[in-house]
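== Sequence and structure of one protein ==
=== Format: two labelled lines per protein ===
==== Data for this protein ====
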Amino acid sequence: MRGRIAGSAVLLLALLLAAPAAAQALRGFGGDGDGRPLEVEADQGIEWRQDARMFIARGNAVASRGDTSVRADVLRAFYRRTGDGATHIHQINAEGNVRIAAPDGTATGGLGVYYVDRGVMVLSGGTVRLVSKSDTITADRQIEYWETRRMAVARGNATAVRGDRRLRADVLVAHLRGDADTARVERVDAYDNIRIATEQDDVTADRGVYQVETGIVTLSGTVTLTRGKSRLTGCGATVNLRTGVSRMRSCADAARTGQGRVRGVLVPEGAGE
């Protein structure tokens, strides 16, 4: 079996890079942006509640800065007073029909919350979706972006799709380098109930790690590779995305115990037809 399967791991790269831009947009609504003008519009007006220390934009509310925007039924910014009398935004909520648009893609969900002090953005509410020109990522629970930890996380039946290739896991994690404008993915981790599917191949595993610089995907746990009627099962597999070579591994103690050896049924193409 060839390493075309590994190509599915790169589905995460372009879409999860939209998360830093989305966090920037929410931060900008709170007034902690990069100095560029922030435009806020709302059909039902903008309200300032001094007693609750909150700004509210209602009715098809849109906050935009440059080519990045946040749209929702309601946008709320919560602030606190600082020692010098200034205001500091510590939380921003985008509520209802949330759509975050950036040059790298769009994100949609029912609720977006940006915790400014922690540098964490969480998009949740129904099926959360990230879409670019070539990729789609969905999650039933939520998608997170952690600024200080430089990572993006998709939780709950997380699925990445490009063309006829599909990567699914309970949790997908992208570890990034660089700032919001130059962020790139260094490593992608997939946890639990992993399934990678292409037009010809189907792979299941317990965990997967994709190293972007080397192009190597390492799968562990109970790993099964299926192509047509052929099937291989082992305790791990290594796939080199650049060379297209896949290697199935036995369990660590297979030589001593005779258990956990790689097993397979190889059926030539066209056999039995």
Observations:
- The first helix runs from residue 11 to 16.
- Confidence is low (pLDDT under 50) at residues 1-18.
- The two ends are 21 Å apart (CA to CA).
- The CA atoms of residues 59 and 201 lie 47 Å apart.
